[in-house]
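User: My collaborator and I are trying to settle a disagreement about how two of our proteins should look. Neither of us wants to argue from intuition anymore, so we agreed to look at predicted structures for both before our next call. Could you fold the first one, then the second, and keep them clearly separated?

Assistant: That sounds like a sensible way to settle it. I'll keep them separate. The first protein:
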Amino acid sequence: MKSAAIFLAFLAPAADSASSGIIGSVLNPICWDATAPIGCRNYDWINNDHLRCRDMNIEMHWAGEPVYTNMYTLRTKDGSSTYVPGKWTSIVLQVNSYSHKFRGLALHASNATEKFVGTWRPTGNDEENRHYWTPTAEKHCIMHAQADLKPLISEFRFRGPPKGTGSITIYALIKQGPANFGFFYYPNGNQPNRFPLESNFNFPGSGTNLVLTETAEDNKWGLANPGESCEEFCFRNGRQMCNETALGLESLNNPSGMEASIAASTGCPLPYIPSCAAVAPARSTRGACYYNGADSRFRSSVCRNFSPLLRSRCTAKHINASRICACMAIGSVQLQSLNDDEIDSEGESEIKDSPTSATIPQGRSKTANRLRFNGGVLPIFLSGLILVASSLFASLPSPSFNRAGRFGPSVMMTALSTLFLMAQPSEAHNWMRSDGRARFEASTTNPFRQRRLTDIHAQLGPGQEMSIKWATGHSRDHYFVVISGQDDRYLFSNQYKGWVQQYLAEAPAGSNQAASKPRLHSCRTDANCQDQTYFAGEITSNDADYCNYPPRPSAKLYRWRNEWLRNDAYVYYDSVNFPWIIGALRYNNIAHMPADEDVACLPVPAKPGKGQHYMVHWFWRG
């Protein structure tokens, strides 16, 4: 039907074992101490079965306890062994053997009393980073954001603790291997120490920790407040003057020059981006850092309509820019980067109030917004926030419905399910039993495996609902969240799970439909569903609340007894706080029945102005 709109709905995955990098709770995550006991001691698994460590009480007993290895190197980027209080140092973790690419990481600095010190950030923009995140408000550590294989070289920014802290040790705990398997390692070992490949393998092996000593502070470069000029910043910081010559050096205004000169003072994310505005070099309020393209040796290709007015000026400022400033003592000699007769009063006013935009060559039109200030405003990037959990897709075939819906869309809809789970150390994983990219698999792609154009898994007509199945193995809650594909950026936020929980908590009285749309249960061994402690009898297709999964229907479905369903939530309402959430469902695992599955049907209602792509996002807190 030509007039029918096509809607895509994702669903997505959990992985226990902190595949998400979340330790503690969603709303109150903590940093994992890299020196704490973890993993099966002495690799003492029964019959080498990683799920049967003789000591099942230790965290993540399915992975081997940590040992030092030279498969990984932890170092400072410039090779130094010092840090400056309050300044940024680049820390590099390097994989020395391709076969040992890792999935998990806990990285932090500790003082002499083993207290966490300093702050961290990934080198990627905080809103664009996908591999790592800083889980706590204090940013005392780096954790993996998902359990995909990480790059061979990972770089991080570390800001030194206050003056007087003294020597600090940078600790790294590395998890290598897939979920429910693998080994922990410490970097900088003296030998490979890989079991059982080396005959001299031993626990924990020997190695050298990365120790940094405190050194004197350098105040040459600094980061101004948003809306503050370098002239104002330097005077505020020790009554100094701005060094305009240093701001305009060609050796500074390129990516390598910025990294060498100002990374320690700013902790800028990579990459550095050229700008044709007098406020550059600067950092935008969204985190990206810019060098001045008019002062670059590449100015002819970056700033096609070059003018001296575009060069970096001490007096330039903008509310959306934190100037990166070079300061020097008042009275010091500096060469003027521009002659006074090159700037008239009108041009000076333009620099202060609205830095000049530059025309971008046609061949660079796709990145124009990243190469210039538009009307003096630093470019604003689409918010794609740090991921906080491991994910997996499960997708729904066509058709994927079996119950008339009261919230169905008024047009045909195609539903793609993307399943998302997040977890902390516990026992294992749950997964979706509906068709999908990772059906029966605890995938750890964060936030979900990318959709292919050929991925169409379900079609819904007016008034119809999609059905979903999930394993009922391990405890805690499953969540299903319906959103528009236009709003998928919210899934990348560290606060996303808390928002979903708040959406459910703030639901209007009487909006919970869980009682009238109950989930059902299917037993692999039918006799188990005869247990009247849990089940209230078989349901048939003639019942109004019957729900099955047509591509692989369960032969028999049973009702849970009502007392087990009191905490279920099935809510659709328009939220003032979270207008991007269309609906949310919550189901806890009632009993440990890993061979069985629950099934539920839910609508994906169309919303005006929300386009033709919807997501049903599944995550499980294991």
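The second protein, kept apart from the first:
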Amino acid sequence: FLLPRCRGTTRLLGPAVACVVAAVAGWTRQVWRRPRWYSMSKRTAETLTSASTVAVREDDSMQGITVPHAEAPSTPRSLASAAVLAEAPNFEASEVQYMELRDAGKRLWEVTTAGKKLSDQILTRLQRSDMAGATSLQDSISNLPSFESALGASIWADAEQRVQLCCAKGVSTFLETFITCLCFQSFLQRGVLTAEVPGRWLVGAQDYDDELYLLGVIGAVREMERYAVNRGQDLDLRSVRVCLGVAESLEEVLMQFSFRNSDLRTRFDGVKYCVKRLQSLAYEIDLAHQRAAVTARTAKVPEVEGATAPAGIIPVIDLQFIAGIKMRYDLFDEGREQVMKQSRDVIKNAKNAIYALQRGDYKRADALLVSCAKDATDVHSRIISGYPRLRSGSFSNAMEEFVEALAYRAFRQDKRLLSMTQMQEAATIPFALSLPEYLGGVMDLTGEVGRLAIRSASHGRSARQDVEQCLACVDAVNNFVMAFTELPTGVAKKTYALKSTLTKIEVALYELALLSKGVVSTKIDGEVDSAH
């Protein structure tokens, strides 16, 4: 500011400014030359100071809070003697059955996991033309325990339990990949896509085995697409055209099926894209050959091993075998539609029976339950006995509703909770109830019992015994469910509703205590006094 205006003063300030700059530079060099430990220790000191400041602030936040001295409370309240059910349920048989199914499922899971891993390795060997390695791995799969030995003779003899465990323990994934290996290897060696599956790796349910076979064949076509891409690196047009012919034939064969919305339908849609990809490969490789012929730089593309192999007389797809699968698939699909329709009737009658029991109309409820048993027996004997896979889904949901209605009737009329053996006798059906169906129905029962408890609580203090009986029923189901280390699929999600119902009934009992005359005081021994 002053320098431009005072030329004489500039001569005096120049040396002063130079001295100041020199002093600052010297101080900077001294600071820079200080040992590193000095700066680190200073940072550490700052960190410790800030931490102690935070600790002091936290201590300050707890000042002024008064905490009472520790004192043990009274023991949790137990159910009164009047709340005990008329007959204590015995769930020992259900627990034993669950343990057997769980152990069998673990053994089956070990087999399918090992088989799936080996099958993936076989596909890798086949893509790299390592036939000896693929054969060795197939021998390893043959040495694995069969499905029957993994499940045990008793469970294997029950077709419905067998299919349910196979669906839940990875059999589908293993068999689909293994069949893909067999079909792809058969194509590479003989040019035939439809290979034969060893009998020890069949589940024994024809519809289930057929669907897995179709999935495996479709998977083999996807492997053929990868094989064609690799052969395209050598411009092997003949091999690519062979793959294209097989894929187009399979697409035409599968077009004859009426696939419903399922995983099989999704995989079938992928065959179309596979055919399109192979067509593009054949077209591009053919153009490459034509360019080579036009330029005349390469007289001929080198032949690869097997490129001039003569065509066989065996068809690439066994049409009679696939036709048999289609016929069985159509029958299965028709049976599935009938099961879905008649299962809705069973569910409807079971729900109406529950509504009748809520109104106390036992006569109508019994008639509806008899109709449920008759319809369920008819569906099972005509369709499900021949197609065990249809047991799950709509029919299983119907049986859960039927079990819930039977259990609710036993509780309303006799104040007892039925075990699985007693439930089987009350159902009067010739086939056995499954453990997931029984568990699902009994857990759904707690919702109806909870509604009954709330409705009974509206009558006031006099209904306390009825509400406690409802609490005893829900508590017994909760203890039964807690005994399982792992609940079946679809049943575990009901545990939250079960615990919620248990809590609501306990709150209703608390509110009933508040509705009594005078002041209610609870003694240490659990007795209740009314002070008038």
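Some points you might bring to the call about the second protein. The longest helix spans residues 319-358. The beta strands are 519-522, 528-531.
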